[in-house]
Amino acid sequence: MATLLRSKLSNVATSVSNKSQAKMSGMFARMGFQAATDEEAVGFAHCDDLDMEHRQGLQMDILKSEGSEEGAEPPLEGDIHYQRDGTGPLPPSASKEAGVCSELSGQGKPKITAWEAGWNVTNAIQGMFVLGLPYAILHGGYLGLFLIIFAAVVCCYTGKILIACLYEENEDGEIVRVRDSYVDIANACCAPRFPTLGGRIVNVAQIIELVMTCILYVVVSGNLMYNSFPNLPVSQKSWSIIATAVLLPCAFLKNLKAVSKFSLLCTLAHFVINILVIAYCLSRARDWAWDKVKFYIDVKKFPISIGIIVFSYTSQIFLPSLEGNMQNPKEFHCMMNWTHIAACILKGLFALVAYLTWADETKEVITDNLPSTIRAVVNIFLVAKALLSYPLPFFAAVEVLERSLFQDGNRAFFPNCYGGDGRLKSWGLTLRCALVVFTLLMAIYVPHFALLMGLTGSLTGAGLCFLLPSLFHLKLLWRKLLWHHVFFDVAIFVIGGICSVSGFIHSLEGLIEAFRTNAED
């Protein structure tokens, strides 16, 4: 009987695996994620939200026996058992949901190659927020350059160990994938005493990072427009209000199908802008101020630079989704190596040549240093990119909030914000509009790109990229780790914690001071 049951479960597991793969491929394709993602904490955070949907829909970790086996005892009502290898039949609602998504995605849709996965990672860590890196060199000098290299090495390593936490050894000694997302890993670390605490912490960090990313887009839009047209009688706050008025229709978004079409165009445009900035800097190579690059640091402002650099490398949240959607997951480590090496070289060169060109006059957003003849054109393209990028983190944040607070079954804190016909209720739309207005208010009262970026990087960036992966790796796999892995994990956790606390305190002090100054004005 046991052999027959095991055979049946094996067949069901194969079916579940095929459906889950089709669902993931379809969702990534519908977002345009295989073609290109947005930058920084945008695309990958939304992908983790899709992971949560995938987990809630398919319930791959739940084995709920339905007494279909002849002679088997029917389960008690509500009897749910967790099976680590993800086998077991699906609940009826989950099967229906999986079938619908399979139809949308198409069973024959191929998975992504290592090159396509690398393209997604590159877009995540080579976004428009690299425009703040020269400002980090201003306060960190050569140590800032070293930190760009160090952050690349650490983020590459923590990305690998995070993926290692998805796998465990089964009874036959085979390494199998037993988890699907960052949230699953966090929940596994807190189980059995607090089985959902870890996932909630990761979700909170994700929401903070997404909302802060939206605020940064509004800030950078107002800043770029104000510096592009300084002669116009329009303040930076007014430009931020105009940008938010353009973004208000985001509250009516139902999906990202239309927005995702601009993703590839935005990414290519940003690469062109980076090349233009570097070309201008190279044209002034004779005037480079090598003597301005310091070996000492500004103790008060350098911790903010740490957050800026860390924030530019954040990609950990979407890596589980990406690795699970690769044709050959064994190529993941190689892909991580060359993407982070390339990012390290490009970021280091961009930050250094930009700082050498303008030295102590380097501004928070480096394009503000360009001559007025080309600054307006470049900044307008950047503003367009920022406005087109805003819907991605906004929609992802809204979905995480709606799913965790309004749609999480019996665990929801508030009633569903969607009606029976699937339409958004009026108060749900009001909440979305309130989120847009909140990003505007933050951008108006704290219009400091570097401070906000440093705060986000120190708080959520360091936590998601440094602290949590090393902690989870030690918790889940400590018995199998070699001594040098344990040393690396502990060192990263300690160093990351120090940098995170220091950067957060200094960034918060700067933001409070800026908030008071703006309130007085």
Automatic annotation (TrEMBL):
One of its GO terms (biological process) is gamma-aminobutyric acid import. Keywords: Cell projection, Cytoplasmic vesicle, Membrane, Neurotransmitter transport, Synapse, Transmembrane, Transmembrane helix, Transport. The keyword Kinase does not apply. It is found in: Cytoplasmic vesicle membrane; Presynapse. It holds the Pfam family Aa_trans. InterPro entries: AA_transpt_TM. The chain crosses the membrane at residues 143-167, 207-226, 262-282, 302-322, 334-356, 376-401, 429-446, 452-474, 486-505. The keyword Transmembrane applies. GO terms for cellular component: cytoplasmic vesicle membrane; inhibitory synapse; presynapse; vacuolar membrane. Residues 66-97 are annotated as: Disordered. It comes from the Eukaryota. Residues 111-507 form the Amino acid transporter transmembrane domain. GO terms for molecular function: gamma-aminobutyric acid:proton antiporter activity; glycine transmembrane transporter activity; L-amino acid transmembrane transporter activity. It catalyses: beta-alanine(out) + n H(+)(in) = beta-alanine(in) + n H(+)(out); glycine(out) + n H(+)(in) = glycine(in) + n H(+)(out); 4-aminobutanoate(out) + n H(+)(in) = 4-aminobutanoate(in) + n H(+)(out). It is a multi-pass membrane protein. Belongs to the amino acid/polyamine transporter 2 family. Antiporter that exchanges vesicular protons for cytosolic 4-aminobutanoate or to a lesser extend glycine, thus allowing their secretion from nerve terminals. The transport is equally dependent on the chemical and electrical components of the proton gradient. May also transport beta-alanine. Acidification of GABAergic synaptic vesicles is a prerequisite for 4-aminobutanoate uptake. PANTHER family: AMINO ACID TRANSPORTER (PTHR22950), VESICULAR INHIBITORY AMINO ACID TRANSPORTER (PTHR22950:SF689). This is Vesicular inhibitory amino acid transporter. It comes from Centropus unirufus. The gene is Slc32a1_1.
